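Morning!

This is the sequence you dropped in the shared folder:
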Amino acid sequence: MSETAKNAAGRLAKHMLAKGYLPQALHIYTDQDGNLLHCVIRLKHPNGDKWIRPMKLDGEEYILGEPDYPRGKPLYNLRELAKRPLDPVIVAEGEWCVDALSKRGVLATTTGSADSVGKAELRPLAGRPVKLWADNDEAGQRYGIAMADALRQLDCIVQLVDVSLLGLPVKGDAVDWLAAHPMATAADIHQLPTVEQHPASGSTSETAEKQTTWTSDGSSLNRAKCCKWDDPKPIQAPLPPVPPFDAQALLPGPLDSWVQDEAARMPSCPADFIAGAVMVSLGSLIGARCAIKPKTKDSWCIVPNVWGGCVGLPSAKKTPALNAALKPLDLLIANAVQAHQARMDEFETDKAVFEAEGEVLQESLKSAAKEAIRSSLAGDKNAEPNDTAAGQTQDSGKKKLDDVAEKLKDHRKKIKTQAPVLRRYKTNDTTIEKLGEMLRENPAGLLVVRDELVGLLASWDRSGHEGDRAFYLEAWNGDSSFDTDRIGRGSIHIPNLCVSILGGIQPDKLTRYLEQAVDSLANDGMLQRFQILVYPDPQIWEWRDRIPNKDARDSVLAIFEALVDFDPLAFGAEPADYFVNFPHFCFDTEAQQIFIEFSNDLHRVKLPNEDQPIIAQHLAKFDKLFPAIALILHLVDCAAKGNCGPVTGEAAGRAEAWCKYLEAHARRCYGLLIDNGLRSAQALAEKVRAGKLANGFTARDVRRNQWRYLTSEETVRAALEWLEDECWLQSQEIGGMGPGTGRRSWRYYINPKIGDFKNTGSVVQIDSPERDNRKSLKTGNQDTANTDNRSLTAVMAVPKPGKSGDSQASNGSNGSTRSGNLGKMGPKPM
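The structure's back. Tokens below.
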């Protein structure tokens, strides 16, 4: 249809326009979604006469007349009513008045003319606070009374504007009053005087007793409808708990004392960071020089290189903890550099002597050659037949030349083709090509240390570095060779590819990486290889100034020095053979039984009952973690106490405790991603605070923007429910009540206190341990940081994070709870 409503109105009113009538307005009736239902043409003659006619579509063209509405004529301005279900409404007499009130910011509607009350569908006003503003005449008075009675039947709270006090002429209406008060605001309009009007006989006493308080800005507090807004609460959720670090259960004596001393002297530094880092450091030091054979008969063996990281906010003391844990290794590096420099000095001296001797021999060779040639020429010139003396002279010159040549040949056999190789223990920044060269010279393995692990992980995804990930995935195994072939660099054979990794990472950056890791295509098991990943509760800062424990430090340094060049066979290892390429340790009887029971529990209980695939993938790699930690701790005991032989039950028991401890930390780390809608709720809260959504928005309005974390119907519903529970939003069901009301849907209204709440700081956050401790300091509560003081040996079962649908108590002071359900009354239509 090419004809617009405006053109159709001109066509249908052409005969009246010819009589001098002037167009005033074309009033458009729509449903709650803005779809056109019918129009009303309004003309006025200069003499005051009016011509008002409805106009509807009849097939492909407009005709005069009103559509047949079986449930009643829809209200005017229905779309705005649907968008603002909690706002007070003024019902005026006629569309012209409604348009004038709307221009002043007032939510208004009408049924049309004074005799239209019984013909209208009033249910969209059910239960709402309403003011009636009728015309100042007898018909208007009848309209007001009839409308008030009808609305009270719908449980509305009704007041009538006292038009007798407004100074209006006879038949004066809202338009006349607004013309006389051009500066009047919506607040002024809502404060107009009202007249008491008793309910009709059909109204209930309950309805009559309801009250509405009208505020200066035109808003209302309907006590029956609970329109009062509570203070919005932070959008947060608790992280899965982790047990406190139990140094005595996890570490042998020397390490126990040293780790606790380092942490105690460093304000707010968790001992977890230092302990985890030193375990990775020890694993890299031992490297591929020996392995552990976890089974008695099978040839399966494990090299004890491990990957680890410290998870915490920038102020969580990750870097100081890593530096403290790496001090023993740094001392070995300093010693290695010093020894290498001494060897280089000796090499340079030997090289200079060698070159000088070579130069002398070269000169001697030249002199002998010249002398031999001169003797030969002189002998040939002066020689006579049977001249024995001349022949002897020639032989003497040649013999001397041969002697010098032989000495030069022997000298060249002593040449040193390569300079001494610096023993390397770690690197902070390298390419895989250079790392491969270093590993070729250090086949026991190397430690890669990065202050921020995300930088390392991200570097593997850069263009041109596609092979880096595969290289490191192989390097985690630590027990096989690796060959690279490049046109420019040639071929590199790495006898044993063994790499340990250590670094820090922030929770938000870890979350972004986790989002990629859960994708089936991007999930190559890289993150799951970071087995010693610790995310502890932070410590409350306090002033500390203590003398270092020198004995503990010296004991740990002695352990590291003993493991630098230890002989595995002297420590009780079995020699390498055809099936096992490394000298290897085995479990003793007690340790073997502990590992068997651990493996049975892991593969027959934990993994089959794990709901989160990414956690199951992480726990599946405990097959390497347990034996690796057991071997590391056993060799520490060997170095400290001289106890040699198979891996003991004590070391295996500590390894089992480490696995239970690290399982809890893994659940906390992966819990950053498994949030039951938290991240979607956070994203929506940010959009609400930024004013990206109008008051009265729908779920469809959110989803069509395709904002991050808000791309699907499920995530949008979860976010809306979360914000409703935390008093950010209130929902109102609209539509589905007959012709003109549109289909059933929900609109969401924003807490007006959000603006004030925004200025108090960030409210969109995970309820992290860091936040809890800051809260403790502020309130003086010193018990928030560590509510569970049990030792790790008593914490044998680590609780899993709540499944979707389980309630989780918030750690925030508001005491609110969150549920993973999508809605208390079922999903709301989008």
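Headline: Confidence is low (pLDDT under 50) at residues 198-226, 757-826.

More detail when I'm at my desk.
O.
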